[in-house]
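User: Some background: our group keeps a shared notebook of sequences we're curious about, and every so often someone picks one and asks for a predicted structure to add to the entry. Today it's my turn. The entry only has the sequence so far, pasted here. Could you supply the structure so I can complete it?
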Amino acid sequence: MASRRVAVYTRISDDDEGRRLGVKRQEEDCRALANLRGWQVAYVACDNSVSAYKTNIVRPEFERMMADLEAGLVNGIVAYDLDRFARQPTDLERAIKLYDKRPGVFATVQGDIDLGSADGRTMARIMVAFANKSSMDMSRRQSRKQRQLAELGMYGGGGRRAYV
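Assistant: Of course. Here's the predicted structure to add to the notebook entry:
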């Protein structure tokens, strides 16, 4: 079998300090998995400090990787975990459509998901739905906290503090 060329995808939502430690850990583990499988890492697509939950945010490296998968420049993706790859069902469905057109590998450090099989797709859909719900829950709790702090006249963080 010819060597598979894969893109490693790393993402973390918040890296306030800009140290990239989380995505570096993910990359190390993904590279180790690719090496174990005998796959060639074509490149690392890294969206550091970029949400996969917010639908109004474009993940530039995710988009590049998806275009390369569609064009056949890579024939697989390795991510640390499915929720690093997708937190929106629409992103997962895009990947499934690409895998329909051009079968390839999709692996995560936490366990493989076969996007080419009905069972694998079902599990991926369930896992992304739970990741999406987790993000919605966190957003709801944070919004409620900020509203309470505002009602109490307290500074809630986030952004720069206004001069008073």
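Suggested note for the entry: The chain has a mean pLDDT of 89. The longest helix spans residues 118-151.
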